[in-house]
Amino acid sequence: MNVKTRESLIRGNPISHGIAIGNLALFTHDNGAIPQRDVPLSEVPHELDRYDEALKNTKKDLQRLKEQLESDRSQEAAAILETHLQLLDDPILVTEIKDNIVKTKKNADYVFQCFLLQYQKKFNEIKDLFFRERGCDLLDISRRVLGHLRGAERSSLALMPPNTIVFSHEVAASDVAEVDLQNICAIISDTGGNTSHAAIVAKAKGIPYVANVSYELIESALNTEVIVDAQAGDIILFPSKKTLSKFHRARKQIYATFQELEKICPLKAETYDGYKMGLVANIEMVNEIELLHQYGVAGVGLFRSEYIFLSKQKFPTEEEQFDIYSRIVSEMRGLPIVIRTFDIGGDKLTIEQQATHKGNPYLGCRAIRFLLREPDIFRAQIRAILRASEKGNVSIMFPMISDLSELIEAKELIAEVQNELSHSGKTIEKKVRIGCMIEVPSAAMIADLLAKECDFIAIGTNDLVQYLLAVDRSNQAVNKLYNPMHPALIRMLKLVVGQASQYGVPVSVCGEIAGDPRFTPLLIGLGINELSVSLRNLPLIKKVIRHTSVVRCHELVEEVQSLSTPGEIQDLLNQEFQSTFPEEYHHIALT
Ligand code: PEP
Ligand code: MG
Asked: Can you tell me the distance from the alpha carbon of 492 to that of 489, in angstroms, rounded to the nearest whole number?
């Protein structure tokens, strides 16, 4: 047997669990510089043909995507693709590039990339929102054209063929958001942390994902069948028949465990000694609401609203947002939903921000900071949410508050918009509840002051951990230090609950630990009122709630508080979970 095709195992870090078997392909964002090549005069017509072909194939892709979206009833997204299709006939794309290929006698992909960079710069300078948005559209389709010009390396995950396992050096949340589950069965990346937004979307969509794998180690297996075992974090290259059948069986077993767990859905989220725990869902995509009803979930504790435009990378208008929120709120059929205002920045940057951001985006102009600086964008979102709130039970929540004045300013904006709407005849009769996220240590330390000013508090532990421990949540290099089982976090949770309860303000946790079954008894014992959990983890968390008693939860808090290091706490919580639940649950838990 050839050495190159002998079965081999590469170990990475499991990010989103599951097992997948598929063909390995490379995905690039095409941000790297494309080498320029002089093209002899006789080959210029060939370069022009190559360019025409790329435009033609991009049209085909967009047409196919548009039809798919129409059949999924995503009319807004389909309309955007229709505009993209029209833009493909734009003289800039059709004539100007070809003229430049002839004039410079350089390779088409190089000429095209120069065009992209030049236009990106121009559009960033334009103040007019309409033209800036048109610029974003143009850049979006240009990336697809470039992908075709560069052949095997695709520039959009939406364009991958069926049964693909994708490798990408970096994966953005917007990339995963546009993944079509019919085509992509797993993701592998070089960088990326456990609570990065790409990871959160992968978990929500149920896509197995392994990070910390360098390209050189798997390159030899490109275009061959590989196995991703995202339970263990393993990639198996050139698997033997025996290994393949072992993993086919394992995949079936996981599926069966999930199905078994779903039987718990109609039952209450209540400990066996009768304590009722709030259990709601985190959602990123509108189409998750269907599953929410199937699971009989009581509501949505966190709707990450920025996902409505992340893969399009431009801000939707008030009317576009109103349409989307109205649909979501109506589809909730009266169940409560917490809409979090846009959390832009951090690892979710728009095209404009990517081009202009400086320094560490997590510590910069992110979330509420961004919204307060961009009142037009903030106002449009608040207007759209308030108008849609008439159709159901809506709360608004602000991300990344670090100081009381931000909460007050945001609340003032809501009051102003409410006034404006009632004066213009669009009465907002219902009072929306207002919530404040605790994601920054300074907010935790003033939780009492914040609690006085809001109706509920939601602890975003994904960010709280990164800001408390000074560990970037998306950076694989410091992944081991990113540990929510740190005693500092446990103390901080206790502090927030104590301060909020002085004012009778309920506290929820909506970070990833809420969906980690090892944390469930601890969070109940700490006095957290509600867990907001990614839908896929919800049945397991309900199972854990039903298998525990409040008495044990309080004991566990005592035991955890007597420990000094994250490692000791981790050992205790792992042991508690593993000794209570059968082995098949250990495999699907987020450990
Ligand atoms: C969090 O930080 O815990 C949170 C829920 O928000 P996000 O993951 O979207 O940053
Ligand atoms: Mg957050």
From this structure: 5
Catalytic site includes residue 136: no
At 299 the three-state DSSP class reads: coil
Query: Which superfamily does 259-589 belong to?
Result: Phosphoenolpyruvate-binding domains (3.20.20.60)
Among the bound ligands, name the one nearest to the CA of residue 459.
1
Round to whole Å and give the CA distance between 328 and 287: 9
Domain range 43-150, CATH class: mainly alpha
Q: What is the pLDDT along the chain (591 residues), one digit of tens a residue?
A: 445 579 999 999 998 989 999 999 988 765 556 667 888 888 899 989 989 988 888 888 778 777 766 765 556 666 767 777 887 888 877 888 889 999 999 888 888 878 777 776 676 666 665 565 566 667 667 777 877 777 644 556 776 788 999 999 888 777 787 788 888 999 999 887 778 888 888 888 889 999 999 988 998 998 899 999 998 999 999 999 999 999 999 999 999 999 999 999 999 999 999 999 999 999 988 889 999 999 999 999 999 999 888 766 578 899 999 999 999 999 999 999 999 999 988 766 554 555 455 677 788 888 999 999 999 999 999 999 999 999 999 999 999 999 999 999 999 999 999 999 988 877 666 689 999 999 999 999 999 999 999 999 999 999 999 999 999 887 777 888 999 999 999 999 999 999 999 999 999 999 999 999 999 999 999 999 999 999 989 999 999 999 999 999 999 999 999 999 999 999 999 999 999 988 888 877 754
Q: At 207, which helix (H) or strand (E)?
A: none
End-to-end CA distance of the chain: 37
Cα–Cα distance measured from residue 397 to residue 395, given in angstroms and rounded to the nearest whole number? 7
Residue 439 in contact with ligand 1 by CB distance below 6 A: yes
Superfamily of 8-29+156-239 according to CATH:
Phosphohistidine domain (3.50.30.10)
Q: Which of 197, 365, 436, 454 is catalytic?
A: 197
User: What residue's CA is closest to ligand 1, atom 6?
Assistant: 460
**Residue 462 near ligand 1, beta carbon < 6 Å:** yes
Q: Exactly one of 365, 436, 454, 510 is catalytic; name it.
A: 510
Ligand that lies nearest to the alpha carbon of residue 338, given by its number in the listed order: 1
Q: What is the pTM of this model?
A: 0.78
DSSP 302: E
Q: Range(s) for CATH 1.10.274.10 in the chain?
A: 43-150
Is 114 annotated in the active site?
no
Q: Is the CB of 208 under 6 A from ligand 1?
A: no
DSSP 434: E
CA–CA distance from 407 to each of 166, 261, 363 (Å)? 41, 40, 18
CB 165 within 8 A of CB 20: yes
| Location of each CATH 3.50.30.10 domain in the chain | 8-29+156-239
